[in-house]
Amino acid sequence: MSGSRDDEAQPATAADITAILGAIDETMLADIHRTGASAAEVLEAFTRFEGDDAIGRVARRAASARVVEVMAILQSADTGPERD
To answer: 1 by DSSP, 3-state: which?
Structure first.
């Protein structure tokens, strides 16, 4: 069956995005949702953004355009003053 492939192609819902990223503002949520990224792509972007080495093979392949787009949104939100 190809159910999992179909699931991966579905854009992430607001619930999916907040489950992955935690509490984020509505603008960021809307920006990420507009990319059409799946929950798997949002998770990949978040994991790459956080620099988690645990993603193994995923880190060795090029990120998809949607993953790069989500990472750019995360980066733009992270450009504020550094936290201690």
So the answer is: coil
